[in-house]
Sequence to fold (267 residues):
Amino acid sequence: MARARTRSPSTRRSGTAKRRVKRLAGAQVLTLDARRIPLIYKKNNQAHRIILRLDMSAGNVVVVLPRRASREQGRHFALTNKAWIRERLSLLPEGIPFAPGKQLPFLGQPHRIRHRPKARGVVWCEDGEIHVAGRLEHLARRVEDWLKLEARREISELAHDKAALIGKKVRRVRIRDPKTRWASCADSGELAFSWRLMLAPKFVIDYVVAHEVAHLCEMNHGARFWRIVAELTRDVKKARNWLAENGLDLHRYGRGDGEPALRPTIA
Ligand SMILES: [Zn+2]
Fold:
């Protein structure tokens, strides 16, 4: 579970220490254009200089302070490197909220969200659109709940079928929204999957399920494990490439505009 990091600027302490640094109000937040980005200070006695790091998963800027550097020096350093922070942030994909008119790739196919305030029912998929009944303020939650339900149905069935092929039993399938993994397998035989997989093409879902089911036999990624995966699904390489290329994109959905996405892996 690695957090995304980017190469960051750093400076010798003496560079900033010479200047007088004013104590500013609200010292924990960096204002950048319209955004307010939290500054998190971390002391590191091994550090020789102040280092800036973007914590993509938390959406904040970490200021690593060597033993003798003060927070004011750290803040000053962050302020003088606003351009670097702005550039790194601009590289992050922006969130796509569940809102009327927005598109989401249900099973890999673009589907537009349509608000149907007067319709009966909750959420249904029809003619390439996802229709959501009820009040607007419930729309985002309803779309997410619906994706979780679809994931439970689709993934549970796949997992039980694949497990039966190798004479194993799935104890339980859980649907979650982990930050850094698509799925996981516990010793107890319990499998967990991200509902975001419902935004990927079917061959990708099939691969991720096969991968976790294969862990019911082999709790490692050795040659035997991959042989079992190959028995359970067809497009292993294609699916892994797809996830590497598009995985981060799936984390944009259901998040507010400008919220950073995260890079997950498969366990
Ligand atoms: Zn694995």
In short: The longest strand covers residues 35-43. Helices lie at 13-17, 71-80, 82-91, 139-165, 202-214, 223-232, 236-250.
